Amino acid sequence: MSSDHRIYSYSAVLMGSPILLKLYSHNEALAAQVFRLIKQYEDLLTVNRTPSQVMEINHAAGRHPVTVSRPVFELIRCAKAASLVPGSAFNLAIGPLVKRWKIGFKGDSVPPAQEIAALLALTSPAEVCLDEEAGSVFLTRPGMEIDLGAIAKGYIADRVRDYLRKAGETAALINLGGNVQTLGSPEGGWTVGLKKPFSEGEALVGALVVSDKSVVTSGTYERYFERDGKRYHHILDPRTGYPLDNELDSVTVISTDSLDGDIWTTLLYGMGVAKGCAALRARPDIEAIFVTRSQEVILSSARHFRFTLLDNTFRLTDNTV
Ligand code: FAD
Ligand code: MG
To answer: What residues does Mg(2+) bind to (predicted)?
Structure first.
């Protein structure tokens, strides 16, 4: 634990990610409860080890439905809905491809094209069948796998915020490694750094100030490997089975719920800057910051945050209407 003015920071490693909790009170017991809560959700939702409820669903693919707890069912329902949006880059059934590429894990490799084509056939979100009454999930074909890696941290960040609010905290921040959720508005807001893609250490492109908002970043620079001079990152295009290839290095979404932020970073990654900004005109509750390979920083709007550019090698475009 370290203290910075009146802020107390607590850290842990969970979900393969560094976790940081900031409180305005020195409360080791509360921090331990928060980390326990995150661990409980990790144990339900992980696909990186057994047992978990999601792994049970995956193991029963093509055989039988599995009844899961309400939070897991609701999260899967939400992930399926996001996957079925026409043209969506989000796909909760992407598991077989994630497992084959192993990007960010030991043993990563570029799969042969025919293997990718075969695995793509096992990624139809429509074949994730939900039975509302039974609270069960059934993957219709053997080999199908759900992967909630693009959405679970957002969901968990929101549960941590709710838990802290219920515990009487009025100001707190949780960072689940790319997913930041904030409670309250201490001293005018929380400052969240926007990482400089592919830089060493803690270099920042800019900083945001938010209150009671989530800030979620997905980047091609977080988990990737290089083979024969080509970079392969962990956000896969569900249409091709290969990493999404466009002008973006990162997308940051500012929203009330981190769940929305987590879904929208993936959706926007698939859309790119122009289509993404157009789509967000219909969603005043969701705002984005795009960082491109050509060192542009584009704000879709900035109604719910303040942004300061810190690195002048980047050009800032503010689309605020
Ligand atoms: P996001 O951009 O939000 O999501 C990218 C991730 O979503 C990919 O890593 C992949 O899992 C999945 N994905 C890829 N393409 C798509 C797509 N088109 N649609 C939908 N999903 C897609 N990491 C470890 O190293 N070890 C662990 O033990 C471990 N355990 C975890 C347990 C849990 C419960 C969770 C939520 C994560 C865990 N992770 C672990 C991290 C995980 O493997 C991912 O790297 C992480 O969730 C990615 O989050 P992100 O915000 O960086 O990226
Ligand atoms: Mg995400």
So the answer is: 150, 262, 266
CA dihedral 34, 39, 44, 49 (to 10 degrees): 160
- pLDDT, tens digit (0-9, with 9 covering 90-100), for 244-302: 999 999 999 999 999 999 999 999 999 999 999 999 999 999 999 999 999 999 999 99
Phi-psi region of 53 (alpha: psi -120 to 50; beta: other; left: phi over 0): alpha
CB 30 within 8 A of CB 22: no
The DSSP string of 108-133 is -----HHHHHHHHTT--GGGEEEETT
- Ligand 1 binding pocket includes 257 (Cβ within 6 Å): no
Q: Any binding-site annotation on 266? A: yes
CA of 116 to the centre of ligand 2 (A): 22
Name residues of the chain where pLDDT drops below 50.
1-4, 321
Q: For residue range 210-242, what is the model confidence (pLDDT) as tens digits?
A: 999 999 999 988 899 999 999 999 999 999 999
Nearest atom of ligand 1 to the alpha carbon of 269: 2
Could you tell me if the CB of 147 is within 6 A of ligand 1? Answer: yes
Q: Which atom of ligand 1 is nearest to the CA of 244?
A: 18
DSSP state of 183: E
User: How far, in Å, CA of 103 to CA of 107, rounded?
Assistant: 8
| HSE, side-chain direction, 13 A CA sphere, residue 77 | 12
